[in-house]
UniProtKB/TrEMBL annotation:
Name by which UniProt lists this protein: Transposase putative helix-turn-helix domain-containing protein
Source organism: Frankia canadensis
Domain (Transposase putative helix-turn-helix) ranges: 3-37
Pfam families recorded: HTH_OrfB_IS605 (PF12323)
Source organism, top-level taxon: Bacteria
InterPro entries per record: Transposase_put_HTH (IPR021027)
Length: 133
């Protein structure tokens, strides 16, 4: 898999961070939904059902529709791959919530291009808590 480092201009950073936020939202929603299902409640939704739910959510919420559908669907594909890795014994932990500081890669790219690094890792953030004051 190839990786590419992006050096966005300040105008592009906001769009990249917005796409990262949308992908993180979709991932965390899939994690929450997966954790709700138990053997007593039946099976958790599969990838196709999650994609249908994403389409419904995009029709309902303008802020989600404004983002890239490709990035959001890639987050679902990555989540499904993480589940397959976990249940196949190739990963030690069940996929968990993605925090903002840890979700620094834009999913997607075309085919074999793989993920695209945002290039904003380590950049000071104005929204940090009181621990930095």
């Amino acid at each position: 898999m190839s990786r590419y480092r992006l050096y966005p201009v300040p105008e592009q950073v906001a769009g990249l961070e917005e796409n990262c936020g949308h992908a993180r939202f979709v991932w965390n929603l899939a994690v929450e939904q997966q954790s709700w299902w138990t053997p007593y409640r039946g099976k958790a939704p599969n990838h196709l059902e999650r994609c249908r739910q994403l389409t419904e959510a995009r029709a309902t919420f303008d802020w989600l529709r404004a983002g890239s559908q490709t990035v959001q669907q890639q987050a679902l594909r990555d989540f499904d791959q993480a589940l397959r890795n976990f249940f196949g014994g190739r990963m030690g932990e069940v996929p968990g919530i993605a925090a903002r500081a840890r979700f620094q890669v834009l999913p997607g790219g075309s085919g074999s291009c793989g993920p695209l690094a945002c290039g904003v890792r380590g950049r000071p953030r104005a929204d940090r808590g009181s621990r930095d004051r």
